[in-house]
Structure formats: structure tokens, C-alpha cells
Amino acid sequence: MPTERVVSFRNVTKTYEGSSGRVQALRGVDLDVERGEIFGLLGPNGAGKSTSIEILVGLRRPTSGTVDVLAMDPLADGPRLRERVSIQPQHASVFQQQTVAELLRTWASFYRAPRDPEQLLTDLGLRESRDMRVGKLSGGQQQRVLVGLALVGNPELLVLDEPSTGMDPNARADLWRLLREYRRNGGTVLLSTHAMEEAEQLCSRIAIMFGGRVVATGTPTELVHAHAPSRTLSFTVDSVTGLSRLDGIATVVDTEPAAGGATRVHVDSLDSDATIAMLAGTLGARDIDVRSGGLDGVFRRLTGHEYTVESPVLEGSMS
Ligand SMILES: Nc1ncnc2c1ncn2[C@@H]1O[C@H](COP(=O)(O)OP(=O)(O)OP(=O)(O)O)[C@@H](O)[C@H]1O
């Protein structure tokens, strides 16, 4: 099936002039999102996710580079773009006095072909809160309302900046269901997230951002294969004397005593199939457990950091 590019960034840079100097938030971002994707931007604090999103919807002007969204320039074609692209508002604080239903109805009235606000209330798990003032809702419920405001216009492209922040697991499951259904009906989603699980389970493709650049792009599986292919296997053996047979296939990273004088062994391997065959065969290992490094492993490998690390690039502080 031919793909249709919905978003394209080419060598996009953004420099902020701040009180503590110039901050180079984007240092040459290239990004392509195709129609029908749920595309995730993943990266530590300060990587440039929000700046990219704000440029994408025309809220900020890039310092240089080219941005194309549905064949439009977000700055020059703002009003036309906003009919087809919705972004979730960042804060519910400006809507404190309205009830949830009033707010969704008002917002729906801005669009030509909105979704049914009442159905959306049900889909978002907000039916019982429909007559409550937004200011009285919990943080997670307010977050659902903000996502609802982006969805009610029934856009072609839905842009969400950390949509599941503050949501409990049920709310997050509701959100994922809604976004998958929206995609099945032809929609495209671009979202930023700090949650590896969200990126892994929800997103069809991911761009990992770090220090104002996209450092890797691919499906979650492609990224894991390319950047964190090693798996950790844990197993129990009665004797450790045979472990040397794993040389060349797996590396022992830890051992610990287990019940009945046995030993629990943890190894890393790039060839888990061969390792399992050896463990189950000659070594007589039991309780074999296999774990992938997952996107966590990819993230550590590409950024050299655990998650949520500040990484601003302060021009003034560079020699
Ligand atoms: N209005 C602004 N003025 C000056 N610097 C800014 C401004 N907005 C963002 N920055 C800086 O630009 C860099 C990128 O910020 P941005 O908010 O785009 O990152 P992010 O990946 O969205 O981070 P987070 O995960 O914390 O939301 C950071 O160093 C940030 O401090």
C-alpha cells in the first residue's frame, strides 16, 4: 500500500534566547510521519520533544529548516491547518469554571464535522463527571478532558504532548483503546511520551530524541534489534561446573544461591535460541526465564543515561 507523508521535518533547528544564555533546543531534526501511524517521540527531559510539537502545529517558528504538515506550512497556513490538525491543550487551568460537557460541546462547535461530545464523554470514561466543573476534577480526569478536546474536532492528525501524564492504569488503557480506534478509522497520531511501555505497546514507530536531535527511528522491534539485541536469561542449575559450555554463546553476569543447594544463574546473550537449547539440553537447567532489554535498553544505549535526565545544550556554557 502506498504511504502518504503527513509530517516532514528537514534539518529543523530552534534556538531560544533565555536569561541564562542561548539554548539550542533543536540541532537539526529530521522526522517523517506517515498517514495511519501512531508515532511516538521519546526522549529525556529537555530533548526537544515539546519544541518539535509546537513547531509542528505552528505555535513556534523554527530558527531554520523546513516543516511540512499535510502539505502545508504550519506558520503560513495556520487556519487551514487547524481544521485538520488538533493539539491537546497543555493545561486545564483556563477551563476551571465550565463543566466537562459544556466544554466539550463548546469545543465541538468550532469544527465542521466534530465527534459526538456525549459519545466521547463515555469513551473517555467521563460520563459520571459530565456535569462537574473542570476545576474540581482530579489531575488524571483533567488530562482525559484535555485529550477529549483534541479528539472532539475529529482531526486527520492528532498531536498529543505526554497525554497519559497523571493517568491511572485504567485511564491509560481507555486512552490507548481510543487512540487505536481513532487510528483504525484512518487517523494519524503523533505523541510524545516518557513511558517506555506506552511507546512499546501503542506506537507503530518511534523517534528517540536526545540533545535536540533524532538519534534513532524505527518500530519498537527494529529499535530493539538494532540497538539492544542482547537478552538476559535466568535459570537454575544443580551444579555450575558445566557453565563453561556457554562460552561464546552467553556471558554469565551473576549467580546466587537457590533452594536445595542449587544455583540461580543470570547470563546475557545475543543468541537466546542457542543458549536455551544448550541450557535445556546438556546443562539440564530449569525455570528458564528470558527478558529482552526492550526500549529501556535502547534508550540507555543511545543516550548513555537512565531515563529523565536534563540535557539542555547551553551555547553560552560551551567553549
Ligand atoms: N520558551 C523557552 N525558552 C527558553 N528555553 C526553552 C524554552 N522552551 C524550552 N526551552 C529549552 O529547550 C530545551 C528543549 O525543551 P523541550 O521542552 O522542547 O524538551 P522536551 O523534550 O519536551 O522536555 P520534557 O520532557 O521535559 O517536556 C530545554 O533545554 C528547555 O529548557
Automatic annotation (TrEMBL):
SMART domains: AAA (SM00382). InterPro entries: AAA+_ATPase, ABC_transporter-like_ATP-bd, ABC_transporter-like_CS, ABC_transporter_ATP-binding, P-loop_NTPase. It holds the Pfam family ABC_tran. It is found in: Cell membrane. CDD domains: ABC_subfamily_A. The keyword Transport applies. Residues 7-236 form the ABC transporter domain. It is a peripheral membrane protein. Keywords: Antibiotic resistance, ATP-binding, Nucleotide-binding, Transport. This is ABC transporter domain-containing protein.
